[in-house]
Design goal:
Length: 450
């Protein structure tokens, strides 16, 4: 007989399967190598049982075991005898990701007239990439990505997902018909698996690993878990009302009279029950299938929807002020790295990244800040919380608390603060008389003149 697994307060026996050949004692759910047959037998006094062959293989067993352990003995340690353990991993093996990257970003125009809002950079890295990294860190392997009219740019940037350790499947959405519509479109990809839906323009500083682990150990009647954050302006968001146990009892989309200050963050965990809910709801007054309506259907039909409050930083990066704030947040975490060239009269202060090919002449950079590859700074000052994209030119000018996208030239303009400048823009001081401000400004632009 092969090695045994003894689980407190549970009863299972597997007649087929592969386990390994060493020992693990500890909490959580172990992962294993497939080296030798094994059997699993009930512990004395156990009440839960599964006899015969376990369908779906060891990955499904790990998911099932997570439920059993956390339901029957939340404080007990698993006793795993004679099994080779490659690591301790409480994350759910079958959790898929659904990333929404199809929005048009009207609040970020004119930047998003020519670029997907999810690809606008923070610290010179697209917003979307932070979300993909968060999913990968939480153990997600397969991601379905909803794409819209900017799909070509998004697909070119993300590729097959291999750079993030993911496998990405693209799912086109021809019209923006709501978040629940995205779930409906992704039904074939998601199947019956649990999944996390992640809005592609959200930034969660501390990631979602803890929330994925929480969902994997949820109570048996919980079919969804939503992330919430306290906000000063809840009328701009979907808002949740909770009971004393933290269960969601009501959701309202952008209410005039909010029932709380708890806004939906844009990260949702679901099991397959959500597909029934999406099929049951009808479009809202604005013609969209609202995810809040689908979640409310779950609640009204007796399913449990739990919630978790985000204590760290979260930001919906849908407007210029939020984008600058998100850039500041990300830059706070950078470490100094100087790969470019500085002349003897240039100075770098604090946490600054100077990428390969960048050149500083008689210039000063005060961090946190990042200077992209092949930039040229001459007689320039770059202050804190500034991201300068690749191949930019900054001469006889000062820049602080700003985001400048690649290929832009800023020459002789004095000082700019709190600015977002798009790709290949030209900002320069007029030399000819009469001296006046001359602007060529696109749709939805904002210009503040001192």
């Amino acid at each position: 007989m092969g090695p045994h697994l003894v689980c407190p307060s549970s009863s299972i026996q597997i007649s087929s399967g592969q386990l390994g050949t060493s020992t693990y004692l500890g909490r959580g759910v172990p992962s294993w190598d497939t080296r030798a047959p094994a059997s699993l037998e009930r512990a004395p006094g156990s009440s839960l049982g599964l006899n015969g062959a376990l369908s779906g293989g060891l990955a499904n067993f790990g998911n099932w075991l997570t439920r059993i352990g956390n339901t029957t003995d939340r404080n007990g340690a698993w006793t795993w005898t004679g099994a080779h353990v490659s690591n301790i991993d409480a994350r759910m093996p079958n959790l898929k990701g659904l990333v929404l990257a199809g929005g048009t970003g009207t609040r970020l125009r004119p930047i998003t007239h020519t670029s997907a809002k999810q690809l606008v950079p923070l610290a010179n890295k697209p917003i979307l990439f932070y979300g993909l990294e968060a999913l990968a860190a939480a153990g997600v392997k397969e991601v379905g990505m909803i794409v819209g009219e900017t799909r070509a740019e998004v697909m070119a940037a993300v590729g097959d997902g291999g750079a993030f350790g993911l496998e990405v499947t693209y799912i086109p959405q021809e019209e923006p018909l709501g978040l629940a519509h995205c779930v409906s479109l992704a039904g074939g990809f998601l199947g019956d698996d649990d999944f996390v839906m992640f809005l592609g323009d959200n930034l969660i500083r501390d990631g979602i690993v803890a929330f994925a682990e929480s969902f994997s150990s949820r109570a048996s009647n919980t079919v969804a878990e939503i992330l919430l954050a306290r906000v000063p302006d809840p009328h701009r968001f979907g808002v949740a009302a909770l009971d004393l146990d933290g269960r969601v009892v009501r959701l309202v989309e952008k209410p005039k009279d909010p029932p709380s200050d708890l806004a939906l963050v844009g990260v949702y965990f679901f099991d397959s029950t959500i597909h029934r809910a999406v099929a049951a709801i009808t479009p809202s007054a604005r013609g969209e299938l609202e995810i809040t309506d689908a979640i409310q259907w779950l609640i009204d039909n007796g399913f449990r929807v739990s919630s978790k409050l985000i204590s760290g930083y979260w930001k919906d990066l849908g407007n210029p002020e939020a984008l600058l704030e998100g850039n500041r947040l990300v830059l706070e975490d950078i470490e100094q790295r100087i790969d470019g060239q500085l002349d003897d009269e240039s100075v770098v202060e604090g946490r600054v990244v100077i990428e390969v090919g960048a050149s500083l002449v008689r210039s000063r950079v005060r961090g946190p800040a990042i200077i992209g590859a092949d930039c040229v700074l001459e007689d320039a000052f770059v202050g804190p919380f500034t991201s300068l994209g690749e191949r930019c030119e900054l001469r006889s000018s000062e820049l602080e608390n700003s985001i400048v996208l690649g290929g832009t030239s800023i020459v002789g303009v004095g000082r700019l603060e709190g600015s977002i400048v798009g790709k290949q823009a030209v900002i320069r001081k007029r030399r000819l008389l009469p001296r006046a401000n001359r602007l060529v400004v696109g749709d939805h632009s904002i210009v503040d003149l001192a």
